[in-house]
Every structure is written in structure tokens, then in C-alpha cells.
């Protein structure tokens, strides 16, 4: 089982990798991927950001309870 802190760290890495992919292959890049692929990556990025926010709140609650 992974702690909330570990999950938060991994989700943050996924967010950064996805942002890098979008910068390299998203709209306006020199080598854009198909629009549907960009939309899928953007949607997943939005979900990961929401998950990150939830995990940050969980970590803060845990620290406050300790």
C-alpha cells in the first residue's frame, strides 16, 4: 500500500510528463499529433490535476490530525 504522500509524488510526475508531451506534440507545436489524441491527453491531465488536489488535501488533513 502506498501512502498519500507517495501517491501525490507519482501523480505530480504524471502531470509533468503529460505537460511535456502536450508542449512537444500539442496544438501549436512543430510536430502536432492528431486532435483526438491531444484532447485525450488534455482530459487525462485535467483528471490528474483534480486527483493531485484531492491528494494534497488528504495529506494536509493527515498532517493536521497528527
Would you kindly provide a written description of the structure presented here, covering whatever features stand out?
There is one protein chain. The chain is mainly α and 66 residues long. The chain has one domain. 80% of the residues lie in helices and 0% in strands. It contains two helices and no strands. The protein has helices at 4-25, 35-65. Helix 1 runs antiparallel to helix 2 (35-65). The longest helix is centred in the C-terminal third of the chain and has 31 residues, at 35-65. The radius of gyration is 15 Å and the shape is elongated.
Care to give the gist of this entry?
This protein is mostly helical.
Cα distance spanning the termini: 20 Å
**Number of spatially distinct domains:** 1
Strand content: under 5%
Structural class: mainly alpha
Characteristic key phrases:
66 residues; 0% strand; elongated; mainly alpha
List the helices and strands and how they pair.
Elements: H1 4-25, H2 35-65
